[in-house]
Amino acid sequence: xxxxxxxxxxxxxxxxxxxxxxxxxxxxxxxxxxxxxxxxxxxxxxxxxxxxxxxxxxxxxxxxxxxxxxxxxxxxxxxxxxxxxxxxxxxxxxxxxxxxxxxxxxxxxxxxxxxxxxxxxxxxxxxxxxxxxxxxxxxxxxxxxxxxxxxxxxxxxxxxxxxxxxxxxxxxxxxxxxxxxxxxxxxxxxxxxxxxxxxxxxxxxxxxxxxxxxxxxxxxxxxxxxxxxxxxxxxxxxxxxxxxxx
Length: 246
Fold this sequence. Notes:
Layout (H helix, E strand, L loop, with lengths): L6 H9 L1 H10 L13 H22 L8 H20 L2 H4 L3 H16 L14 H28 L10 H40 L3 H33 L4
Helix pairs in contact: 3-6, 6-9, 7-8, 7-9, 8-9
């Protein structure tokens, strides 16, 4: 087994290597070493997804108007916060249509950021593939919503600029600006989580009491902040895509 892998990844490679190679083959990919097809960021994403599914199943089975559980209170707070932000950024009526995406991204990224605090686990968001995947989801979603709501002709007008004569100049600028959005989302999340993880590991190797406590708290704060910023930027992109031109 590779000594650089998380414990759970080592178990996947030990017992599920065949499945991992088969899944890679479906996408025309092959592992560098067939004995280790599972990477940390893939296994950790699966774990985060499983945690979300379990949490939602528990939440759904225990929903109550009269005696809400602590878990229900937590998710009601999250839902209320995300809905309020969607109303502010996208609009009261339009924002409610996209809360599911915003809330899913926020919870997934928050759990993915925080899971690195657990010993033998790593944050999948410190690998560039995961932020890039989430950024592409946001990019495809807001463009799809814009096209669906406004139609191709009306949606494409935002690339032309305010004055028709400026269209030849504005079109390439707007295209580059839109293509830069997933890159910006990716780099911001990846860089912050990777840097935070490395700083925490350095101080864990130097001290085992005060330092780790401080940087664990900092890691929690950065994790929450980065999940919020990613969600907020996605809201702003959706707002721009569905906004009516005046």
